[in-house]
């Protein structure tokens, strides 16, 4: 692409495009040159000028096996030869059937699970909420219509999913259209709810092991076990938002498997297709699904769905991604990589007075910087500086996120850590 074509493209970008979570005045400032990505390969993405960057946040936490993975590419091409999409209302297709079968076997070995498809994390959560609500109506307990969610939670941006969220910049403005949520911050907090409050709960929603958008906050070990017990004891459904944690990110296939619990409902999205296509799945325990089975006039049918539900290209990508986990023994190599990442980050913290805390689980890491009175938006500036050293990532406040594709090489992993170190040094000083 020559200079003229590039400047035309950027002019059109500035004239017509609106980006999520983005201050558009800054973005469209003539002095700000937008990063235009044109291709990827493995853990790398390349911009319009041919510069390469390690995809340090896996393209917003979606990518699992790297970009342009030949096996996933081929599976999508093969599906394209059949069709790209057909309706899932009144018909089914082999890819969706096979994927549901494999997801259920991986998620709840030896126990039956249902798979309800949708398009992204928010819709997988919306579906879970509506299923939970209708479940209690069918069971004759309509008073159970409220949801409990945690402090610092993030479950998506559609109105229903964002009702559960507790990050003020994202959620406060829309509080008028949010349904009331019971906000808790710990197991103790949950235990302190009065019987009156408890009896109105349809479900508790949690991001297992780690709260992502809330700042890469790790839950205490054993919390999921306690929560599962508490929910069972009080006849309240447990919804696990595995949108970030599923598909190997934390070291096991699913977050909940680290504590060997089975929630009643769970949401998968981001990594489901290996980061290729928007597809989501709400996993439902068979006992919950069973309540929805009844004659046409029993009112048990779930009236929820989207036009692209169970998209065939997405299902093909997801099946291929699951294959790659087996072919490449992805989970087998993870402990070594996670240990290498931990060592690298510990060295970084030891040598920098600007690092406040490192938080890590599997290949998800957050490097929290000391709050600075001198530097405004430190996290964003450090990420921008790290970009010059070949790392692309985004911060959450003053926490730098490092969450590369799972098959990143060891040298690349160390290079990513080094880029963060150089970025911190440039912005905060030695
Ligand atoms: C990203 C995310 C969501 C929302 O998913 P989208 O695909 O962006 O709608 C929900 N929950 C968690 C834990 C997430 O990380």
What does this structure look like?
- The chain is an alpha/beta fold.
- The relative contact order is 0.15.
- It contains 16 helices and 17 strands.
- The strands form 4 sheets. It has a 7-stranded mixed beta sheet with strand order 4-12-11-10-7-5-6, with helices on both faces. The chain has a 4-stranded mixed beta sheet with strand order 1-2-3-15. A 4-stranded antiparallel beta sheet has the order 13-14-17-16.
- α5 (94-107) packs across α13.
- A hairpin with a 2-residue loop joins β16 and β17 (399-402).
- The structure holds pyridoxal-5'-phosphate (PLP).
- Residues 120-122, 154-156, 207, 212-213, 241, 243-244, 269-270 line the site of pyridoxal-5'-phosphate.
What are the main properties of this structure?
alpha/beta; binds pyridoxal-5'-phosphate; 16 helices; 430 residues; seven-stranded mixed sheet; four-stranded mixed sheet; globular
User: Order of strands in the sheet with the most strands?
Assistant: 4-12-11-10-7-5-6
Low-confidence sequence ranges = none
- Rg over C-alpha atoms, rounded to the nearest angstrom: 22 Å
Strand content: 15-25%
Mean pLDDT: 96
Instruction: Kindly name the structural category.
Output: alpha/beta
Strand-helix topology:
Elements: H1 3-16, H2 24-27, E1 37-41, E2 44-47, E3 52-55, H3 58-61, H4 70-80, H5 94-107, E4 113-118, H6 121-138, E5 146-150, H7 159-163, H8 168-171, E6 181-184, H9 187-191, H10 195-198, E7 201-206, E8 210-211, E9 217-218, H11 223-233, E10 237-241, E11 265-268, E12 280-285, H12 286-290, H13 312-327, H14 330-351, E13 355-361, E14 364-369, H15 378-387, E15 391-392, E16 395-396, E17 399-402, H16 410-428
Parallel strand pairs: 3-15, 5-6, 5-7, 7-10, 10-11
Antiparallel strand pairs: 1-2, 2-3, 4-12, 8-9, 11-12, 13-14, 14-17, 16-17
The protein binds pyridoxal-5'-phosphate (PLP).
């Amino acid at each position: 692409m020559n200079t003229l074509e590039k400047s035309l493209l950027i002019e059109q970008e500035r004239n017509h495009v609106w980006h999520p979570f983005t201050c558009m005045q800054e973005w469209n400032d003539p002095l700000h040159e937008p990063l235009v990505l044109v291709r990827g390969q493995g853990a790398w993405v390349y911009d319009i000028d041919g510069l390469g960057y390690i995809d340090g946040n896996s393209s917003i936490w979606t990518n699992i096996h790297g970009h342009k993975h030949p096996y996933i590419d081929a599976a999508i091409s093969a599906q394209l030869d059949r069709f790209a999409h057909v309706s899932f209302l009144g018909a089914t297709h082999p890819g969706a059937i096979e994927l549901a079968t494999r997801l259920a076997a991986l998620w709840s070995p030896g126990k039956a699970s249902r798979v309800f498809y949708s398009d992204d994390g928010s819709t997988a959560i919306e579906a879970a909420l509506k299923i939970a609500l209708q479940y209690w109506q069918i069971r004759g307990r309509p008073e159970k219509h409220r949801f409990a969610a945690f402090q610092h939670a993030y479950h998506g941006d559609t109105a229903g999913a964002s009702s559960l969220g507790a990050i003020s910049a994202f959620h406060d403005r829309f509080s008028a259209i949010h349904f009331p949520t019971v906000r808790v911050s710990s197991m103790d907090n949950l235990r302190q709810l009065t019987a009156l409050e408890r009896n109105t709960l349809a479900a508790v929603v949690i991001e297992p092991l780690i709260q992502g958008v809330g700042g890469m906050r790790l839950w205490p070990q054993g919390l999921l076990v306690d929560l599962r017990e508490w929910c069972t004891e009080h006849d309240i459904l447990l919804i696990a938002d595995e949108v970030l944690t599923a598909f190997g990110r934390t070291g096991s296939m699913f977050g909940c498997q680290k504590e060997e619990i089975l929630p009643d409902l769970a949401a998968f999205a981001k990594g489901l297709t290996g980061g290729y296509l928007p597809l989501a799945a709400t996993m439902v325990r068979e006992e919950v699904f069973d309540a929805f089975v009844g004659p046409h006039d029993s009112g048990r049918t779930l009236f929820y769905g989207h036009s692209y539900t169970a998209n065939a290209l997405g299902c093909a990508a997801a099946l291929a991604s699951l294959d790659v986990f087996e072919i490449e023994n992805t989970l087998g190599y993870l402990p070594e990589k996670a240990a290498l990442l931990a060592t690298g980050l510990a060295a970084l913290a030891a040598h920098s007075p600007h690092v406040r805390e490192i938080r890590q689980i599997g290949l998800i890491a957050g490097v929290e910087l000391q709050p600075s009175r001198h530097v405004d938006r430190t996290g964003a500036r450090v990420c921008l500086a790290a970009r010059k050293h070949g790392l692309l990532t985004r911060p959450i406040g003053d926490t730098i996120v490092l969450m590369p594709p799972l098959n990143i090489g060891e040298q690349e992993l160390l290079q990513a850590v080094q880029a963060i170190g150089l970025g911190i040094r440039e912005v905060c000083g030695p």
